[in-house]
Every structure is written in C-alpha cells, then in structure tokens.
Amino acid sequence: MASATPSEEDIVNRFDGCNNSPGCFEESRFESHIKQEYLCPVGKGVLNNPKKVPCCGQVFCHFCIKNSTPYIENDQGNNLQQQSLAIPNYQTLKCPLCRKEFEANKLDDVCLNFKTLLNELRIKCSFEECRKVILLENMLHHQFGCEWNPERKVSCTDCNKELPYSSLKDHFCNDRVLRKYADVEKKTQEIKHEANKQEKMLEELLE
C-alpha cells in the first residue's frame, strides 16, 4: 500500500527543534546571541546561503526552501520526490509560511546589507579539536584547510601526489619505495666495500 503524501504541517515540523538541517548552521556554534531575522524558519538554524521568496519576502536557507516540500508535481501530474538542490528551476515550490506557490527560479538574493551583517557573525569551527572562531564568511575557507579536517588536501613529501590527510598513512607511494630501495642498495654496497677492504687488510697481515 502506497504511503500517504505528508501534509504541509508535517513537512515543516520534520525540521522543528532539530537545529541540524543540512542547510543551516547550528546556533550553538556562534559566539553571540543570534537575532531572529538571521534564523531560517524551516531549518531553525542560522541562515546558510539565504534566499528570499517572491510571495511574502521571507528569507530561508537555499537548501531548506528547496526541500521544505518533499513532493512536487511535474508536467505530467506525477509526484516527484525532491533531492537536495537538484530541483529544476521551472518546478513549482510552495512557501512554508504563506503557502503561496512560486517557481524555483523566482528565489532572489537578499540585500547586500543583510548579507554583510550575516557574514560578520562569528562561528566556531565545526571540528571539535579546533578552537578557532572565525567570521561566517570565512568559515568554509577555514574548514577546508583546517589542520583538524581529515579530508583536507595534503601532498605526499615523496611523490607530491595530493590526497586527503586521512588517507596519507595508507598511501602507497612508489617513489618512496624506490627511494628506500636505492638507500638499501647504497648501504649494501658500502657494507660490501668495507668487507672487501677488511678482507684485504687481513690477507696482508697473514702474508
């Protein structure tokens, strides 16, 4: 038996209180109290990539507004399940607050002043070991190169191949193997040379 399409109230409530929608930043990560205008009405966290709806002017996270209604209708009248931001711009969305419909391509950027004030909020790095607090606008750049980020890109000191830090210890480097082989071979030749030298000296003493 097919499951019933969730109601609009159920759709909005599935985000309520969780404060960990993929679209939002957790409010607890910020240094200061966050004004209501900087909180997403759907994801309940601090706005991430804010977009304004054309119907009532409310601001939502781009991810949250595009995923606030998990079922949309295509040209043939069939229900399609939304997947992340992969929603065609011609699809119709419905505002979770005023319930009016609008096309996805009608989502608008917030004004520069709003975005500037939002970006000036100070947020903790998401990696617990890192104690740095940075401006929101610099957060993604910081976390990409954060020393505690297991996926940050590093280069092998032997072959210069770029790979995630978490994979470095398991990285099989041909250059490193060849270099170690060359070092062992060199050491072996030195030992042989010294052995021949000692053998020759012994022969001279026995003559």
TrEMBL record:
InterPro entries: Znf_RING/FYVE/PHD (IPR013083). PANTHER family: TNF RECEPTOR ASSOCIATED FACTOR, TNF RECEPTOR-ASSOCIATED FACTOR 4. This is E3 ubiquitin-protein ligase NRDP1-like.
